[in-house]
């Protein structure tokens, strides 16, 4: 080494002398000095491929991928056809990506999803694993739309990826896009017939669809669209014939559609099948009251009050006062008859 150092000092304008001493320093892991002499050699002869590669290797070893890339790009400007420098550029990208990926994954595991996402997004070569990691960050942040965007990126090149398909189906479901959720879940089942997760999701979708259908029917009722509400309730009951709220709103709609006898019949059937469903007794009592069937009305008002227990609301207060009024009235009527 002393010989090479002496030769480098004696021959400051010799590329070989500067490079050989730099290489010796490099072998002995004296990277700081090696860089100095490699750069001297580079200035003397910028057309030598080896010097770019060795400088880049020192930066790679130090995980300084930015400067490693810079020296390679400088080399490609001089030697654009160098396959070795081009290969180094690709290796540097991979090393940098791995470093960022591992750093981002550590942040993700610490539940620092926004910081992890930022680092994952900085990775240029977005492999399937990177896209899945990005999607996972968005998912944890409840951003299902962007999560699904990256599941779809995976599926562009790997259309049968079970994890991406399953997660995409759940993303659609979380966005209330039930049609695409069903389509995607069924794709999973076409590929993996016994996939329990997809089966459970489809069941949840159908439940949500039915629930939304009932909510829409209730909304229509509240808007005074009784015929439309009734038809939607009937459609819902074709799939859920024992749903007490659907049966209840069927009665309410019948009453508003000026079909009191059918409404009363509906309420009675509901109190028979669901004897603790208090609203049915109240609506039955009111319907009977309006039909001047006061004895039956009193019984149902009292049943409603009993089921409500100590709870007090407008319906309970009305039931109490109306029961008293009806009892007084019936007593007078019965007394007059005597």
Arithmetic mean pLDDT: 92
Number of strands: 0
Low-confidence residue ranges: none
* Sequence of secondary-structure elements: HHHHHHHHHHHHHHHHHH
Report how far the terminal alpha carbons are from each other: 132 Å
Regarding quaternary structure, how should these chains be classified?
Answer: single chain
Structural class: mainly alpha
Q: Helix count? A: 18
Tell me about the biggest sheet? none
Helix content: over 70%
Task: Write down the overall geometry.
Answer: rod-shaped
- DSSP strand content: under 5%
Q: Supply Rg.
A: 39 Å
Provide the descriptors you would attach to this structure in a database record.
single chain, 338 residues, mainly alpha
Verbal overview:
The chain is mainly α. It has 18 helices and no strands. Helix 3 (31-44) runs antiparallel to helix 4. The relative contact order is 0.03.
What is this structure, in a nutshell?
This protein has 338 residues and is mainly α. 81% of the residues lie in helices and 0% in strands. The protein has 18 helices and no strands.
Helix and strand topology:
Layout lengths: L1 H9 L4 H13 L3 H14 L4 H13 L3 H14 L4 H27 L3 H10 L5 H13 L3 H14 L4 H13 L3 H14 L4 H27 L3 H14 L4 H13 L3 H14 L4 H13 L3 H15 L5 H24 L1
């Amino acid at each position: 080494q002393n010989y090479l150092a002496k030769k480098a000092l004696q021959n400051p304008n010799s590329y070989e002398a500067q490079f050989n001493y730099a290489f010796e320093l490099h072998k002995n892991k004296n990277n700081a000095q090696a860089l100095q002499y490699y750069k001297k050699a580079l200035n003397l002869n910028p057309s030598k491929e080896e010097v770019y590669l060795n400088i880049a290797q020192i930066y790679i070893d130090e995980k300084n991928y930015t400067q490693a890339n810079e020296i390679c790009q400088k080399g490609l400007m001089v030697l654009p056809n160098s396959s070795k420098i081009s290969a180094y550029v690709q290796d540097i990208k991979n090393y940098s990506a791995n470093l960022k990926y591992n750093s981002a994954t550590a942040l993700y595991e610490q539940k620092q999803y926004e910081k992890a996402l930022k680092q994952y997004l900085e990775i240029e070569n977005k492999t399937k694993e990177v896209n899945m990691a990005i999607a996972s960050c968005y998912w944890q942040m409840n951003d299902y739309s962007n999560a699904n965007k990256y599941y779809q990126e995976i599926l562009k090149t790997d259309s049968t990826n079970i994890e991406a398909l399953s997660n995409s189906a759940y993303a659609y479901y979380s966005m209330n896009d039930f049609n695409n959720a069903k389509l995607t879940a069924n794709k999973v089942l076409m590929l993996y017939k016994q996939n329990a997760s997809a089966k459970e999701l489809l069941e949840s979708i159908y439940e949500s669809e039915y629930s939304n259908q009932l909510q829409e029917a209730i909304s229509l009722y509240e808007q005074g669209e009784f015929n439309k509400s009734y038809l939607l309730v009937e459609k819902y009951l074709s799939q859920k014939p024992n749903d007490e709220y659907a049966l209840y709103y069927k009665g309410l709609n019948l009453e508003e559609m000026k079909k009191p006898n059918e409404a009363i019949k509906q309420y009675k059937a509901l109190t028979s099948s669901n004897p603790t469903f208090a609203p049915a007794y109240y609506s039955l009592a009111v319907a009977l009251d309006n039909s001047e069937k006061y004895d039956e009305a009193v019984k149902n008002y009292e049943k409603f009050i009993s089921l409500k227990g100590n709870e007090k609301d407008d319906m309970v207060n009305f039931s109490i006062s109306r029961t008293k009024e009806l009892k007084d009235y019936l007593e007078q009527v019965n007394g007059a008859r005597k």
